[in-house]
Structure formats: C-alpha cells, structure tokens
Amino acid sequence: MVKDNRLSAKLWAFANWAVIGFFILNLFGMIATVVTSSFATRWLGTWFPAGWTTRWYSSAWNEFQLYEVLSVTFQIVFLVVFISGLIGVPAAYALARRDFPGKKLVMLLFLLPLLVPPITFGIPLATVLYRAGLAGGMSGVVLANLVPTVPFVILVMIPFIEQIDTKIEAAARVFGANTFKLFIYVLLPLLMPGILAALLLVLVRTIAMFELTFLTAGPTSQTLVVALYYAVFAAGVRAVQSIDAMAVIYMVTTLIWLLIALRFVNPTQIVARAKK
Amino acid sequence: MSAPTIPLSQRLAARGLDGLTLLVLPAVLFLLLLFIYPFFYGLFLSFNPKAGGTFANYSRFFSDSFLYGTIATTLWLALPVTVLTLVMAVPIAFRVRLMKHQRLLTTILVIPITLGTVLVAQGLLNYLGPQGWFNRTLLTLGLISTPVKLLHNYWGVMISLVITGFPFTFLLTLSYLSGVDPALEQAGATLGAGPWQRFKHILLPLLLPGLAITFCLSFVQAFSVFPSAVLLGAPAGPTRVISIAAYQAAFEEYDYSMASAVAMIMGLVQLAIVVAVLAARGLLYRGPAGGGKG
Fold it and tell me: Is the pTM value of this prediction over 0.90?
C-alpha cells in the first residue's frame, strides 16, 4: 500500500492512537488502583497510600470465607467445563459430519443462547430452576451455567472437526474400529488441541459469569465473582482495602487461566464466537 | 412384482440420520429443557399474574412510569454506548489490521472482557472517585477546578459500559475486517483511489453487513447491563435500567409472574432493535469479500 504522508493523514493516525492510548491508560489506571489499594494501610486524599501492608489479604481471606468460596467456584467451574465438553463435543461431531433435515433449526437453537444476554433468559431460567427445587444449590448453578457453554463448545468445535480428513476415520473403520473405539483412539487425540482451547475458554467465561450464577446461587453456592458483587454492594460494612484484596484474588484467578488459554487461542476468538 | 423394500434404517441414513447423528440429541434435549422450555414457561407465567386479568402484568408495566420508564432509561444508556464504541472501534480496527504485532493489543483489550463487569465496577469506584487518580490527574493538569462527579450517576454506568463494550466491539470489527481481502483495496489503490475513496467505495460496503451484526451484539450486551448499573449508577433513579426492574420483581417482591413479564418486554425491545438493524442490513451488499476468481 502507498504510504500516505499528508499532514491530515498523520493527524488522523495520531488521533486514533491517542484514543486507544487513553483507553489503555485508564484501563491500567483502574486495575492499578485496585492493586495499590489492596496493599495500602490508609489511603485518603493523597496520590499514594500512607504505608504498605499485606494484612488485608489475610483479613479478606477470613472475612469473606474465601477458602470456601474458591473451592465452590472451582467445583462449579470444573463441573461446567467437564459436562459441556461431554455433551458439546459429540454434538459438534454429529453436526460437522452429517446433514439432516432440520439441521438449520438445530443450529439456531445453539446460536440463540449465545446471542441472547444472560440476564434476559436468566430470569425465566432461574424461575424454572427454583420451581424444580434445583436453584439455591450447586446443581442449579451448574445447570444454568451450562446453557451458554454447551452451545459455545459446539460452535467452537464444528469448524475444528470439519477440517479433519474423513479418510482417517474411514481407515479406522476398515480396520474394524467401532464408533466408541474410533472416538477414543482416533478422534480424541486429533481433536485434543481444539477441545483444550474450547474448554479453556469455557473455564475463563464461567469464572467471570456473573448474571446466571447470581440469579441461581444460594448462600453456599456463591462463586468468587458473586461474592465480590455482594461485598461491593454492601460496601461500608468492610474496609475498602479488604474488598480490593478480594478483587485482586479474583483478578489473579481469572487472568492466570486467561494466560493459559491465550497460549492455545487467538484473543479475538474470545469475542467472535457467534461468527458464521 | 413389487420392488424390494429398503430397510427403514437405510432410508434414514440416506437422509443423514443414523447412529452418529444421534450424538447431537443430548445437547438438543438439554437446551430444549433449559432454554426453550423456560422461555415458554416465562411467557405463560407472565399471562398468569398474581392479581387481575391475563394482561394485568403488562398493563401494570405500561401504566407505571417507574416501570415503563426503564425502557427509555436503558435505551438512553445502550444506544449512545453502542454508537460510541462503534465509532471508536472502526477507525482503530482499520489501523490495527495492517500491523504485524496485533497480538499485544488484542491481549490487552481482552482483559476487561475477561474480568467482567463486576470487577470493572469495583475498579471504577476507586479510580473515578473524587479522590481517585482520574480526578487527581485532571486537577493537577488544571483542566478542572473541582472533582468531576462520575459515580452514582449516568456517567459511571456509561463509562463502565464503554470499558467492557469497546474491546468487544473492536475485536469483533477486527475479525470481520481481517476477512476482507487486502488485494481488493490494493486494486483500488492501483487504479488511483485515495485512502478516503478506498474506504468509502471498497472497504465500507464490504464491512457494513459485519458492522450491522457487531452493532446488534454490542447493543444487546449494553441493553442488559445489570451489575454496573447497581454499583456505579443510581439504581433508584437515573440508571434504573430494565434488568433492575426485572430483578426486583423476582427477588425482592417474589412476583415471578411480573418478573417474567419484564424479562419478556426486555427481550422484545432487544429483538425490535435487532430486527430493525438486520432489516436495514438486508438492503446492503452481500457477496464475497475475497478477491480472485469465483
């Protein structure tokens, strides 16, 4: 491409970078405030806190019962990851390999939960789960969280499965493998990178999924993000630094998994899930 | 003599229905049970109010300004945010698409999406406060003389929506833009088209259908704002969005029938905007965005 060296083009480029720079500056400023505050002894009306301490972490750990909250969070998240893989991957395989009447309708069924925002379908869903006696416990939270994650796994996996040559499967069939053996010995190893990527994305999304967990969780089935919401909501009851320490623990938990996920996927994949 | 009948299983297999196709069933059943059924259950419930006739919930919603006002409040937040994030995202996506090292930028931008609205709300409560770094910097630079009030009003919610919405819109636009073959633009340049002409006559028409989808997704996200409207806004007044009304009906008044009615209205408004945008999209060019033959 010919490089445009006119002043107007340079100004326009500068304006673009200024906008993105301003955005990132504020984003990091926001995150840095939380981190700084969580280590502050007292921080009122100055640029930086009066002194530094780590005691807010131990007080947050005790006050918010973070041990229980974290173990509940990981139980829920791993259950969601496991079940959505178990239901999603075979469904994606069927959809990638077969054309059947009503396939478009099935695809629409899988697309809708990703397009409709969680709070919109979450309220009727929570009502049904409460009526069924499932909400308020861990099973209700897991079921609600599976609603967007199962379609997510399916839509991520379909293109991945489509690119695997059917001749490999035909060869396995010729050598006498049944569907189960084919799945375990041939497909699973080939699909592993895709499954890993899809499930890591599910993991990151489920840790951060606020609305569905919030609507269905009881006192003993709160995940970290819901506990954080209640802490911020009732601000004034606890020291700000204590809430910030909890927020840092939440950030670290989420970002570690994000970093792991980004080794396998492109950042745009986290967003561009509904692309056809 | 009649033709030999083909077994049913073979006839079904010819139409793509065999044992393998059945693997899709668990997922379909799961979503029918937990996505489609709750929707119809909610719809049914909304017409069975606690008191009054079939349409009592809906008539109550549209006669109480505290309830119907939430639609305008939410639109007044969601539409400006969506337009603003798109206007910011498109030029930046155009600039970034030609960069070799996009990865660092996209990784940074995926952070606020991953952290989610609750954490962004908590961070902004510190950052935008009267003693926070944002106001402090503006005061030091002499741009303002008293701290700007950015919390517990319209602006707090607006800013938090931009922080989570801009990266979303940007990454989506970028992924659509990278689907447009650069050869088309180069051909335009060879034929003497300047940057603005190339944008107006080549890239924009190819990108518009994708932008329509981006607009819909960003709008729907912004329209369902919940935690930041409570934590950063004024949930009793200026930022009483529709999801707050639905939540209060369900979990504070325990009126699930009314809550379902509000959720249905929320879904309908979203659908109306999406349908309007997609109908407009139908008027646009839809064809290959790649160069070459075929």
Answer: no
